[in-house]
## 1
Amino acid sequence: MADIISDFPDSVLCYILSFLPTKQVVATSSLSKRWKLLWRSVPSLDFEFQNNEIVSHLLSDVLRRSSSLEHIHLQMGWFTAVPSVVFICKTLVVLKLDTSLLENISFVDLPLLKILHLYSLILVHCDLLQQCLSGCLNVEDLEVKCVGYITREKFHSFPKLVRAKIDSCSVPLEIVKNVEFLVTDRIYKEDLVCEFQNLVQLEFATLECSEGWLHVLEVFRHCPKLQTLVICIEGNEEESVLPYPLTVPTCISLHLKTCCLKYYRGSAFEFQFAEYIMLNANYSQIMKFRIRRYEYKNLMRRQNMIRDLSSCSKTSDTCTQSFEKTI
């Protein structure tokens, strides 16, 4: 049988290899002399070696030699530092670091980087996150979770950022104020120092209390174009029903189309919030309730919640309700 693959140019072979796990890509180096170093030219590398210094040195060597690397996903472990050369790879478009250690980063220059995801990182110095972000000003998709608390004064904004998924204690919301899509754990009062003029989709959590109710409304006032809302209302205590505010934020009355309540328990606060949205969202299309597992398994409680919610008045004639179990 003819060896058709060997007739392909290196560029085609590298493109094919880019769809394989890096371990399998490296294994092709034993096929022949031609394949021995070919894997080093693959534009995508995915390393999941925990605390392995040998792999770290190998990765450093590959990065120094490569002129076409575009995608890196690393899980190095918390005892092996991500090679500093990663942060000066000027061809990188995607960088994802997970469960890794950052130290001794002297310079960051990633001018082509569009996607940056940072998860569960240990930072040897408190300013390393700020240092990493400062060299990635063209990022369009940013995710930062579990990387520790960083001071808010040192960050640069991202003028091209479209999507952000962040811990508010790690990254101040002010630097992502231009995004269209935002997922965060909390939005604090001190975060509302700017307007989110481009924001059309927001996901966050708030507390079940009178201050939480007023705070949520204040958040809406800072998101004038919001169309999709995913919210989790946390708390265990039942509070008395609060009076509805006299004013309605513009995004609710003119733009909101989809609202989803995550981990819905059927508390008085949650019910009042849902009722408020349905009464004031003139262009609402979908009102979704992701019911918490405990309540969903209780058939009678679930049916009572659905009955009460279904009886709520809706301003929008096109608004439909959906009910599902939280995954």
## 2
Amino acid sequence: MRFNRLDLNLLLALDALLKEQNITRAAARVNVSQSAMSGMLARLREFFEDELLAAVGRNMEPTVLGRQLEAPVRDLILHIQATVGMRVNFDPAKETRIVKIMVSDYATEVFLNRVVARVLRDAPNMTLDLVPLSDDASEQLRRGENDFLIIPRHFLAEEHPQRLLFEDSYCAVIWEGNTQVGDVLDAETYLRLPHVAPMLGRPRSATFEELMLQGQGVQRRIRVTTSDFVSMASVLIGTDLVATMHTRLAQSCARRLPVRLLPLPYTLPLMAECVQWHRFQENDPCHIWLRGVMLEVAKAMPPHEVLATQVR
């Protein structure tokens, strides 16, 4: 199909080229040969009267026009995909789609596992692809590379719809054999003891609770870092390490590990965990159904708990 002399199929090639900035990888992305992708790039250059991608050493970088085209071309493709995917009726039992959800191990442990169970029961032919959080989570959502993003509200992009799933507080977690801490963990001891903390993504970035602690001028002695949330509870066993964890996750870990949960000596704001999706998927029947499942599961969760006394 052509529009104003442009073969619209070339937009898929342009999107891949601007994303990959490499002819070979772009060709693989749209399942064509390298020579075919080179020919498409030549036709795009002729149409736009611009190089679009220029060689810089051994790499290719977008020109000024190329950078200006990247976002609108991606949005156009997503809009077309959302339009042609519209259906009058939706039956989850017959849905065969692969739904990609970017989510932390924390949210999977305390929430999404129940969503998975519902989907397997009611949509047996649907596949859920759970991918770990990355530092470019919002950019991946903008490009339509993930269907849903489940993260704290603090990190959400403003231009896409979102809904609150649940809230959670924070607590301190220590090995039950840690003799450095009594029944109460005071600020002096909290600062003196070594800590284990998660650093997520590539490059590894601080989490919500670390940002909130830093905002209060709290500088922890972080001696161990993990790439997830759950493993912190296992790592601190047999040590004097302290973990600052989501209370829901800490309580889950305490049911299977020899740890103690204690109130923090600092007041942190509640963490609001939200689900977000691309605005072009707002009216997608499959998305609407799965969002409804998530909200039903979230509504059935117990309210957040702020520890006031020691919990074993």
## 3
Amino acid sequence: MLTKKQASLIVSKLMGDIPYNINIMNDLGIIIASGDSNRIGTSHRAAERAIKEKKIIEVYHDTHLEKKGTNEPIIYEDKIIGVVGITGEPDEVRPFTKIVKTVSLLLIEELNIYKQKEEDRVAKKAFLKQLIDSDGVYTESLKKEARENYKLELGKLYYGVFAEGKDVLRSVAYKKEVFAWHEGYIIFLETLEPITTRNDELIIISTHEKNIGLILQNIKQTHLMLSFFKWKKKGIERTDTYYLANLFSFSIPPNQDLLKKIKEAAPEYAETLVCFARNNKSINDTSLELHIHRNTLNYRIQKIEEITGRNPRIWYELWELFYHFAYHFMNEED
């Protein structure tokens, strides 16, 4: 279908380069875009004839019903979806009519490809959500969708292989369906062959599971944890290596009052807190890693305590801070 928006875009782009008035009509012969805005919404007699007779209609004399010009049907997938008309002597405007028609078809093709990709993306996203919500118990309709659309046999054991770039996964298994997930992409493999990566790639591999929803959650939590702690290394990581990643499911509801305070502190002090926790609360090691003076670090820790009411030097308050900083980080990432 040729939309008014598409037609208007074509006319506006080409009117500056073509010294004749351009009209684009829909499949009923109604003008939906024109260099002469007064004609939009009116019937175009020659276009109606072009649609009915399925051929180019050229008008050589102005009448009270028609103006001189060439009118050529736009045929897409063996169907007339509109007509291009250019006003002027047919011998002069005929080449321009073909140019406008070609541009129209290219734009329609490009927009349809984009539309199909967007529909596929939305369908895949909804499919993954169903897998998570099903918690490993799959309906027959979901099994059918997985088998027919994505060549997945739900109920079988799969590995999830995640990467931040799609090309990485193509090199691992180019025939497998690639799904957008979290901040990257994921494929599902029944067996796991040795995987090699370049120095600039991070790959996360899940455990072998029947519950694909669990695979998705574990990979997301592992990636969040690696990002939060700034542990993201290039190479292969496995979800079962990091038990701590389970905290990133955030099954415990956050303290909303503390979370508000964390939002205030996070932009300036999140990195300091994470580094402090990663270095076992060592002032020396943390200040060295951050390349700041010990006094500066002590000042930052004091500010965190003043803003949040939690002392990072006390281990259980540090964990409370860590949990809420991580929760804030997750929502900022999403």
## 4
Amino acid sequence: MTAFGAGAGDDLWNEGQQHVSVLLSHWRGAPAVAPLLEDLCRFGDGHALEALPALSLAFRETPGGKGSDFDAAVGDLVQALVAGLAVWPLAQVPLRHSHAAAAGSLVLASSGRASLALAVWDVDTGPDAGPESGAGMLRAAEFAPVESWLRVLRGSARAERLVRRAQGAGGGILSEPLVLTAGMVVPHCGLREAVHVQGSLVALRLQRALFRDEPVQVRAVGDGGTVRRTAACAEQSRLELAMAAITAMERRDAIPALSRIAGGNGPKALRWAALKAALGLDTRAGMVLLGALASSDDDALSVPARRLHGQLLGEWPELERVAQWRG
């Protein structure tokens, strides 16, 4: 039995988890925190930020960087968590967190379509900064179907507001330089704007997902060309990954489920992925499904389905006999 098996190791882990859970529970009930979390629930349901007093106060610009009671409460939480982990190093903070390159985030709370996070950047912009520091020329920017508010708590940094131009306006990405200092608030719509930070900064980040059937798009800063697209939500990503695995495993018994997804009312990208998976698994079933989508007058996939149907028949005319589809 190892030191971290049943016994002393488990006792220490359980003790640490209980301490962290109690700490978070007390923090959420604090006078400076509880009203804001109630507002976050309403914000996640679609209420305007201006109609929510506690939440809007936390994202009100304060010249000179004077902090609010909620700012102080966030600082107290971080200090308490760090102190707790020093005593119980095996404990795990039950808050979503992520770290990439020189940027990290800790989700303090979430509700519905909204989330409130502590965001940190630590980008070395000195002359000796290497690629691993996160500094250097920005080559691509991410645009997601979310609306965001960023309020600087500590530090200062140079930044760029990157604005995606409409295709009719020539495409490409415009760049606006910013200098971020404590107390500043930077709102932006992720569909067409992104903020790239260069420096050391701590900020509160409020986000709300938009009701838009659009993927996250990573575009080249130079010409605005698409680098890659990903699903905007985790559930869609899991389904797309599952469909890729099913196709690789040649699971033809999954055709009914794929047909339901492709013919359903989900995101267009997910439905299209299901259609391609069905074509890869069973040519006849896939062509029948493709024909049904192409023959529809009001389906969002009807135009690309007709285009794909025509391309397939143009290259393999014998496929017409497979499904007996009539346009």
